[in-house]
Amino acid sequence: MLVMTFVTKTLSAVSGGAARAAAHTVSGAKHLGRALLHRREVMRLSELDERGLKDIGLVRSDIEGALSVSWLSDPSSVLEARSAQQRSAAAGRREAGLRRPVVIQAAPRPSAKDIKIACNA
Predict the structure, then answer these.
(1) Strands (DSSP E) along 57-119, which ranges?
(2) What is the DSSP letter of 114?
(3) pLDDT tens-digit profile of 63-78?
(4) pTM exceeding 0.70
(5) 94 by DSSP, 3-state: which?
(6) Is 57 left (phi over 0), alpha (psi -120 to 50) or beta?
(7) Which residue, 58, 76, 86, 87, has fewest beta-carbon neighbours within 10 Å?
(8) If you write DSSP's letter for every residue of 29-67 in order, what string do you get?
(9) What is the residue extent of each domain of the chain?
(10) End-to-end distance of the chain based on CA atoms, in angstroms?
């Protein structure tokens, strides 16, 4: 009876480990496929001219930096991080501009001596 209990527990541990290993392999393959798909999309972005990249908030060095990561990494995550960094910097500049008081000076009013009335009589 003791042997049977030991064998049952051992086999259940192996099957759980095998299931985790299989799930990890499938997950890894899924992430690799996604990374390769996103790499192809980022490479298509590199075909745009400077004006097209500026329209979507990127510069050429952002694309080159994203493509320089490992083939196993997702280059779109690099672009996302750079975009978030640029957005936060722009938001900081807007905040600083809003905190600074804007002084508008009114034009001085003319005095009675400065007003000349012309009369054609």
Answers:
(1) none
(2) G
(3) 888 888 887 788 888 8
(4) no
(5) helix
(6) left
(7) 87
(8) HHHHHHHHHHHHHHHHHTTS-HHHHHHTT--HHHHHHHH
(9) 23-94
(10) 132
